[in-house]
Design brief:
The chain has helices at residues 12-15, 36-48, 70-86, 105-110, 137-145, 159-163, 191-200, 223-234, 236-251; strands spanning 18-23, 51-56, 59-60, 92-95, 98-100, 123-127, 149-153, 177-181, 207-210. With 264 residues, it is an alpha/beta fold. The radius of gyration is 17 Å and the shape is globular. The strands form 2 sheets. Strands 3-5-6-7-8-9 form a 6-stranded parallel sheet. The chain has a 3-stranded parallel sheet with strand order 1-2-4. The protein contains 9 helices and 9 strands. The chain starts with 11 loop residues before the first helix and ends in a 13-residue tail after the last helix. Strand 1, helix 2 and strand 2 form a beta-alpha-beta unit. The protein has one domain: Alpha-Beta Barrel (TIM Barrel). The longest helix is centred in the first third of the chain and has 17 residues, at 70-86.
Length: 264
């Protein structure tokens, strides 16, 4: 499933339709929208940003441990999809979670407490702490043994990794995907994250871009602007892989595509 283009009389970037695999759009679950009306406003913003499908990824574990489980997320996704249909908002929401690193992840997956991306059972979205660095190598090894791929969320916003982007090379055997936040390429998380976002594109791991949107103000979706910046620097083929093709492939549990080289 690779979602595609559509509007005549627009620029190539405006015709592109995106998939967003990381977004906090479910009302009342985590630090995303607090109400259905706020969630609908965010979903309209996603649709206006040319996003056709989004994976709802409320935080699981960490400070949100025991707040809600996989079934709660699936139910909230079904309710939001119903509201989107009633309001003719052209967006499909799929279940997922932004899972904080935790030694219990393997057993929680087996007991259906935490969710994989798009609920395919193929890729887990893994979040590292923002303030301290916890090495995920042991967990990556364990997930690989369970035939699960890992998507490391926003490494460019983790201070240790942002300052040491080459560190991710030691994970290469397990081929985790690095998910870069769209707004980071635009400098909206500061110069360190912006520099790191571009630097990670040169590392030997699968990559993709997602919004990690939480609202319509400070954490709004910025996929179209990021796509244009990536296409300008890397070319449309690379921008399509990062913003369209690899995110689309996660929806059906497929392996991810490498970026064409050389990357500058």
């Amino acid at each position: 499933m690779e979602l595609n283009e559509a509007r005549p009389n627009t620029t190539p970037a405006d015709r592109t339709t995106f998939v967003d695999i990381h977004c906090h759009c479910l009302p009342g679950l985590d630090d995303g929208p607090s109400s259905l009306s706020e969630a609908m406003a965010l979903c309209r913003a996603l649709a206006n940003d040319h996003i056709a499908a989004v994976v709802a990824t409320p935080h699981q574990l960490g400070r949100f441990d025991n707040r809600y489980d996989a079934q709660d997320i699936r139910k909230a996704v079904a309710q939001l999809n119903g509201a989107l249909k009633e309001n003719a908002i052209p967006l499909t929401v799929l279940p997922g979670a932004d899972v904080r690193i935790d030694e219990r992840i393997g057993e929680l997956l087996q007991s259906d407490r935490i969710l994989t991306i798009a609920d395919t059972g193929r890729h887990l979205m893994l979040e590292l702490p923002h303030t301290v660095y916890i090495e995920p190598m042991v967990l990556l090894q364990s997930l690989t043994a369970q035939k699960l791929g890992t998507v490391i969320t926003h490494p460019e916003r983790q201070p240790f990794l942002a300052q040491n982007p080459q560190h991710v090379r030691r994970w290469a055997e397990h081929r985790p995907c690095l998910q870069i936040t769209a707004a980071s390429f635009l400098g909206e998380f500061g110069p360190l994250s912006e520099k790191a976002a571009w630097a990670f594109l040169n590392e030997p791991l699968p990559l993709l871009v997602a919004t990690d949107a939480h609202d319509t103000d400070g954490r709004a979706p910025r996929m179209t602007a990021a796509y244009k910046a990536l296409a300008k620097r890397l070319g449309r083929t690379a921008a399509d892989i990062l913003c369209r093709r690899n995110p689309s492939r996660l929806l059906t549990g497929q392996d991810l595509l490498p970026l064409p080289g050389p990357k500058t």
